Amino acid sequence: MTAPTWPATVVRHLWRGLISLKLALAIILALAILTVAGTSIEQMPPSLASNHIARVQWLASAHERYGPLTSFMDRLSLFDIFHSFALRLLLALLAVSLAACTIHRWPRVWSSVFHTPVRPDDALFEDSRHVVLLTTSLPPVATIEQINRQFSAMRFRVRTANEEATAFMLGERRRFSQLGTLAVHAGLLLVLAGVLVGRIWGFQNPAFIISEGDSSQLGLGTGIAVRLNQFSDQYYPDGRPRDFQSNVTVFDNGREAGVGTIRVNTPLRYKGVAFHQSFWGESAIVSIADPGGITVFQGSVPLAWHEPGSESPLGSVQLPGDLGTVSVIGPGSGTEPASVPAGEIRIELYRNGQLVDAPSSLAQGQPAEVAGLTFTFLRESRYVGFKVVKDPGMLIVWIAAGLMILGLVVAFFLPPQRFWVRCAPRLDGITEVRIAVQSRRHPSLNGGLTGISKTVAIALGDIGSSGDGRNGSAHA
Amino acid sequence: MPEQLSQFSLTVALATLTISLGLYVLNIAGIRLAPALMRLSVPVSPQLVASGSLTTAERYATLLATNSFLFLSAALVARAVASHHAPFASMFEFSLAFSWGAVALFLCFAWRYQARILALFVLPVALGLLVYASTLPGDLKPLVPALQNDLLLSVHVACAVIAYGAFTVAFAAGVLCLLQYRDNVNWLPPHLKLDDIGYRAVMVGFPVLALTILLGSVWAETAWGTYWSWDPKETASLATWLIYGGYLHARVMRGWRGQRSALLLIGGFAATLFTYYGNLFFGGMHGYA
After folding, report:
1. Does residue B37 sit at the A interface (CB-CB below 8 Å)?
2. Does residue A196 sit at the B interface (CB-CB below 8 Å)?
3. In chain A, count of helices (H) and strands (E)?
4. Which of A345, B75, B89, B119 is exposed most, by the fewest CB atoms within 10 A?
5. Rounded CA gap, B217 and B227, in Å?
6. DSSP code for A20
7. What is the pLDDT of residues B119-138, one digit of tens each?
């Protein structure tokens, strides 16, 4: 034996720390604390995180509540806990700890399933809480044979061994249930793996917007385009929403692939891409002509955004060449003085980021000229925002979670049963039968020992013995 | 008509549950006072002195608890009939259902493990939920689009009800275990038995909560397009599940028994209540219930 080198010692200590229950409990506690914080502090909507201006505005509103603490809290990402580095680190740590525990336990579980010794430690037969003592006049080997028949009839897997005059037997049932716990932990790891797969190979467009009658390319390398044929919304008499339906046609690389209806609880799935009904709103159909009278844009502009600090819906169009960008602003809720009158729109023309001109609002069908361009507001229409998701990891997540729950049920409700029997001759020629059960989890319940020993006692015609009081089951 | 029936059943359930709890408490008072009464030469039934045996008061208390369970079931069924969907669509309905789950799981455990004493802490929770529900608007409203999924609404919430009910039983076992940790209280079972009952209840609640979360995320994917969105109720249920996971490990791997595991059961139930109520504090996608 040589003393281990220091790297080996370090690795061993690291490993021990990793598989320690304390670490796992500490991680769970930390996660629970983060969760409580994340549910009690109002979190920033995820859509804001990437939008700097919206983010600053949101923080300003948070300032009213938290005062000077706000910027400090923001730096600790307390407003975005569920996307924070700390949470990810904890989840990763939990995953590593879980993996380490699973690897660490595997050999023991394996040998417990396949190589349980027929002859256990003698101490097992001495623990009176888990041992029943019977006596018989049959010799040990014949006794074991008799007990073997009983156990086999109860569909136990039986193995026997002799050692001098003493006979041993091991009866096992549902030994594969021990793999249940393993399934739970492996399932949990697989769930995380599935999440990762979705993150890496999936994509998401939370706001895929199409106006009624228009079609839109999904992009993201799919070659899929969708046309919104019709959108309908229905309400209950009390004004609460009842149903939203979008009738769409899907095109795959220009070819019509099919027609479908998307509702809130019935997404449309095509080639692994799911289209979910998410939101809807007004859009404006406008026509824009250049100074020569040539139409440079005609179509519907979804008013799907808001100007910072305003309630008026807003959409925009990028015109070809250096003609500029057009903002189309619809009527707001009417609380603001400068809002657009109902049924009209306002146009703002920008070139190189500078506002060129913004005439007063446009009524339907009345052309207006702005910086040489002719704008016509043809009519109102509506758009639908779909959430589009492709997540190849989802199937892994569902299967893994199912595996986990199945493992839990097996581990909890179909526990393995394992009885050891020792038949030893006494000096007076009587054979002493000890039946021991290993039940680590339910010490107060004896793991079915009472029932088993009763059956065995009847089969042996238990003649009673010098009691330590524990052989009572057959006589009780 | 079904609406009135539901209201009536609810009132009866509330009344019987209250009397049932009162009888359980009286029964314990009787057991505690029996030795003193005997010393004063008041004739006392020997049943009362031997703790654990079923007294008349206890028998009637259990009968009443069963009764209130039946009326709660009737209230829920009547609402389902009236609204044409599972009675799980508002905080009012979910509070009724949670109360129902607590009483149902209590009756199962009381019968299976001969531990009616659990009533002492399960029934107050069930009563509290009913009283809270009676302060909420209970009018029947049709379902908003996101909730229009009969199968998932029924199964996802039913699982939550069973899990919460089981955790309520585990909580009661935990509190009683703390009271009994020195095994010196004559009207309580030994603390190891209480500890075991708590564990058994978590054995039911833990997989069922996992199923609740799984079905919830299947539903979230169908309705909203993401199976996990860190919604407050969603997150709180995950934290609850992790806490009970910690409890199971501490108990099975480290042999935690008695006081320490009982404290974990109480902590777990606090998390359960937080999950139940969290959406009201913090909004989120579970805004309706």
Report:
1. no
2. no
3. 9, 20
4. B89
5. 4
6. -
7. 999 999 999 999 999 888 87
DSSP B67-129: HHHHHHHHHHHHHHHHHTS-S-SSHHHHHHHHHHHHHHHHHHHHHHTT-GGGHHHHHHHHHHH
Using DSSP bridges, classify how beta strands A241-252 and A346-351 pair: parallel, antiparallel or unpaired.
Answer: unpaired
Nearest to A156 by CA among A118, A127, A119, A122: A118
* B113 → chain A, closest CA residue: A445
> A376 vs A149, A319, A373, CA distance in Å?
94, 15, 10
Q: With contact defined as beta carbons under 8 Å apart, do A285 and A366 qualify?
A: no
Radius of gyration of chain B (CA): 20
Token pair recorded at residue A472: 């009572």
C-alpha to C-alpha distances, A344 to A212, A280, A329, nearest whole angstrom: 19, 19, 9
- Can you tell me which residue has the tokens 């009236």? B82
Partners of residue B145 in chain A, C-beta under 8 Å: 241-244, 263-265, 277
B207 has a chain A CB within 8 A of its CB: yes
Mark yes or no for CB contact B230/A38 under 8 Å.
Answer: yes
Q: Which amino acid is at B149?
A: N
Do the Cβ atoms of B89 and B83 come closer than 8 Å? yes
Pairing of strands A273-289, A268-270: antiparallel
Write down the number of H helices and E strands in chain B. Answer: 9, 0
Contacting residues of A for B203, CB less than 8 Å apart = 412-413
Q: Which of B277, B66, B266, B30 is nearest to B171 (CA)?
A: B266
Mean pLDDT of B197-208: 96
The structure tokens listed for A158 are: 């039986």
CB atoms within 10 A of CB A179: 17
**Which residue type sits at A84?**
S
A166-190 tens-digit pLDDT: 999 999 988 888 899 889 999 999 9
SS3 for A382-425 is: EEEEEEEEECCCHHHHHHHHHHHHHHHHHHHHCCCEEEEEEEEE
The ipTM assigned to this model is: 0.88
For residue A380, pLDDT over 70 is answered with yes
Torsion sign, CA atoms B260, B262, B264, B267:
negative
Tell me the one-letter amino acid at A130: H
Amino acid identity of A308?
A: P
Considering only CA atoms, give the Rg of chain A.
37
Strand order in the sheet with A166-173: A131-136, A431-437, A417-425, A166-173, A157-163
Query: Searching chain B, which residue's CA lies closest to the CA of residue A45?
Result: B284
Nearest to A44 by CA among A86, A78, A85: A78
- Which residues have C-beta within 8 Å of that of residue A106, sequence separation ≥ 6? A182
